Amino acid sequence: MKPPIEFWFDFISPFGYLASLRIDALAARHGRTVDWRPLLLGVTVLKVMGLPPVPKTPLKGAYAARQIERYLRRHAITLGRDPGAPPMNPLPAGRLYAWLRVHQPARAKAAAQAIFHAHWAQGLPMDDAAALRGVVMASGVPAEVVDAGLADPEAAALLRAEVDAAIAAGAFGSPFVIADGEPFFRVDNLELLEAWLERVGW
Amino acid sequence: MKPPIEFWFDFISPFGYLASLRIDALAARHGRTVDWRPLLLGVTVLKVMGLPPVPKTPLKGAYAARQIERYLRRHAITLGRDPGAPPMNPLPAGRLYAWLRVHQPARAKAAAQAIFHAHWAQGLPMDDAAALRGVVMASGVPAEVVDAGLADPEAAALLRAEVDAAIAAGAFGSPFVIADGEPFFRVDNLELLEAWLERVGW
To answer: Among A57, A120, B35, B117, which residue's Cβ finds the most Cβ atoms within 10 Å?
Structure first.
């Protein structure tokens, strides 16, 4: 049994959301499972790499916006939120997910999917504690568990540890997939990841 | 007859070289021709976008190096030059190509292919005027024409104009392809360009 594929993401990232819709089915076609791991672009890209956010980068910001529109058309996906709008604060959702991944591993992925869906498909403010709590409860996590996660200061430390692990593994973007040590950055490269899992022409 | 696809590149860029090996055949499969257009990453990326060179960007530099190695393995290509070595000065080759594109349009692309091959497949210093002259002559441009291009101060102005045109069109990287106004950045996206030319699922 091979280890899970690592799927690194930030809830703040529309490209991370788009990849989240495909990564489990892609992996399953090759008999693989996926470990969803949170990172923070505000640490990896802004602090470690020293880059500005993509939407604020001349030329690249416009290109990224166009890429999203093109991807949405091609995959027939509608967003409930303008990807060009000011981003939410990713810490509450990232911390809660990092906590659930450790303390409720069987329910954590469904919670992450629910957060992504609420934020990007429905346009809900997932940096609002009440909205975040409701969405994660609706995904199947008992209310007392959600509340324990929201209140536990360990959640912040768990997220920090994940971000440190991302950097140590060379992961910096969202989505960033690592399969058996091989890194694949960007939703554009999911086809390349799949070819690599099939070992077509490698 | 549709207009040519624009293929923007910088001779300094290994990814530009790798795309140059495929772009004409890809376009021809869809009945399209390609206009090879020079830009300077030192202007678009460093000055306009305000970013550091990719090889010097933490995390991304290591990822890009790995991407190149993976691409070379997959496409069975050997480079004659370490892509991690200090880059050449791209101005002499860029200026000469910008001049040839205007003054010798029927021979310019073969000259560009020869410069790319000499630099990336053979490891020759294409910022050396004598080596550049020899390679472009061998590609089929008469010696007196090469010398005229190398001596003409208009060459620098033509390259600057191309860089300005790139920026105006939103092109910033190497390779950067624009087909009927639709932009495709990175050699990784040539498959997406091809799907777009076929209008599969769009």
So the answer is: A120
With CB atoms and an 8 Å threshold, state whether B172 touches A51.
Answer: no
Q: What is the pLDDT of residue A88?
A: 97
What one-letter code names the amino acid at B89?
N
Q: Indicate the SS3 state at residue B68.
A: helix
Of B50, B62, B191, the CB nearest to A170: B62
In angstroms, the CA A39 to CA B82 distance is 32
CB within 8 Å of B122: residues ≥ 6 apart: B80
Chain B residues within 8 angstroms (CB to CB) of chain A: 44, 48-52, 57-60, 62-63, 66, 70, 73-74, 167, 170-172, 182-183, 185-186, 188-189, 191-192, 201-202
How far from chain centre, in Å, is Cα A112?
8
The DSSP line for B184-202 is: EESGGGHHHHHHHHHTTT-
Contacts within 8 Å (CB) and 24+ apart, B71-79: B71/B18, B71/B187, B73/A202, B74/A201, B74/A202, B75/B18, B77/B18, B77/B21, B78/B121, B79/B14, B79/B120, B79/B121, B79/B123
Provide the H-helix boundaries in B21-128: 23-28, 41, 60-75, 91-103, 105-116
B48 CB neighbours in chain A (<8 A) are 58-59
**What distance in Å separates the CA atoms of residue A101 and residue A108, rounded to the nearest whole number?**
5
Task: Give the CA distances from residue B43 to residues A124, B37, B154, in Å, rounded to whole numbers and listed in that order.
Answer: 40, 15, 19
The kind and range of the H/E element at A35 are strand A34-38
For domain A5-199, give the fold. Glutaredoxin (3.40.30)
pLDDT in tens, A78-135: 999 999 999 999 999 999 999 999 999 999 999 999 999 999 999 999 999 999 999 9
The angle formed by the CA atoms of residues A169, A170 and A173, to the nearest 5 degrees, is 120
- Phi, then psi, of B78 in degrees rounded to 5: -115, 130
pLDDT under 70: residue ranges of chain B: 200-202
So where are chain A's domains? 5-199
Q: Are A74 and A21 in contact (CB under 8 A)?
A: no
Which position has the token pair 């768990």? Answer: A158
Is A188 in contact with B189 (Cβ distance < 8 A)? yes
Alpha carbons A74 and A76: distance in angstroms, whole number: 6
Q: What is the dihedral of CA B85, B87, B93, B98, to 10 degrees?
A: 130
